[in-house]
Design a protein that fits this description.
Blueprint (H helix, E strand, L loop, with lengths): L9 E2 L3 E12 L3 E3 L2 E3 L1 E8 L4 E7 L6 H11 L15 E11 L2 E10 L1 H5 L11 E2 L10
Antiparallel strand pairs: 1-9, 2-5, 2-7, 3-4, 5-6, 7-8
Length: 141
């Protein structure tokens, strides 16, 4: 059996994607305006099979995106949750490309429910995978 490898790196394109949380693990502490914050590294896989890893701040006052992800996937109300329980949960993620240390990274900058992403007339619509052949072709923020 033969397998033709695609040696062109694939990155989730910018915009909204339907994604599944693969796993959650502890990240390195990050410095914020309010001091250091623990982080959670969350791996998502989009419906187009692109992997996106994002570091989420966990300290009170700077963890709004993690809180939003938890509310969307697990519901509101629990005071404390096991972040590992996010594994297998589905949501919408908004990806933006950012240049850091001469490399382009796909960053999760917002999350929403799948219902919101699929709502007719929504300004959030899932988009397809982009094959990156030249970094100069990217719209980088």
């Amino acid at each position: 059996m033969n397998f033709k490898r695609n040696l062109v790196p694939q990155m989730a394109s910018q915009g909204w994607h339907i994604a599944t949380v693969n796993d959650v693990r502890e990240g390195k502490p990050a410095k914020t305006k309010r001091g250091y914050s623990d982080t959670a590294l969350i791996n998502f896989t989009t419906e187009n099979h692109c992997l996106v890893t994002q570091s989420f701040l966990m300290a009170q006052g700077v963890n709004f995106l993690l809180e939003k992800l938890i509310d969307i996937t697990m519901g509101e109300g629990d005071e404390e949750i096991e972040l590992e329980n996010l594994g297998g949960m589905r949501c919408g993620i908004k990806v933006e490309h950012r240049l850091w240390n001469d490399r382009v990274f796909a960053n999760v900058v917002d999350v929403c429910s799948i219902d919101e992403l699929q709502k007719p007339g929504s300004n959030k619509s899932a988009i397809s995978t982009q094959v990156i052949k030249d970094l100069d072709d990217l719209d980088i923020i």
